[in-house]
Predict the structure.
Amino acid sequence: MAQRVEVVLTVGEREVLERWARRPKSSQALALRCRIVLAAAEGQQSTDIAVALGCNKSTVGKWRGRFAQRGLDGLHDEPRPGKPRSISDETHWSTRSLAQATGMSQSAVSRIWRAFGLKPHHSESFKLSPDPLFIEKVRDIVGLYLNPPDAAVVLCVDEKSQIQALDRTAPVLPLMPGVPERATHDYVRNGTTNLYAALDAPPVRSSPTWPHAIAPRSSAGS
């Protein structure tokens, strides 16, 4: 007897699966796979899941196994046999660049995109902070912006993404019909190429009553 594959979800994976399962533009096949994984994560038997969702037990076993091995990427259809693709999922197109690459007219590409709900220029990000003090930290920072101390200078310092070597904490979910590219909001910093900063401000008279406050944006998600 084959051993049942256990499915354990992170908070982010559960949020994505629930959104895909109820999203009107998701394909019925993808929605079913999401419901299978969600039910499996609750500890339900494959037989019970198959009966509840009206599918075959082997279908349940296939998708719970694919998810256990490959995560969210495992719920998408695998490439069909044939000539390897010359266009990858990471490619971002405009109607002009795609028309030039395929030899089609720009208007034809635009009509196809509209027909299938494709919007390669759109992307979504999501972030669910596990920090139990996240709400309190956000209130502290927002409150500082809205009501700073008397005669205080509040500075917000952020980085430029173009000069950093970053990796997302989870694989980027590729574009699908009606669904934009999705990526986690958080990232792993692998270094900074070059960083220069300068402030051009008028001199301030020194005063023992002059307070200064600096509120880094990143502290809300730490």
Notes: The first strand starts at residue 123 and ends at 126.
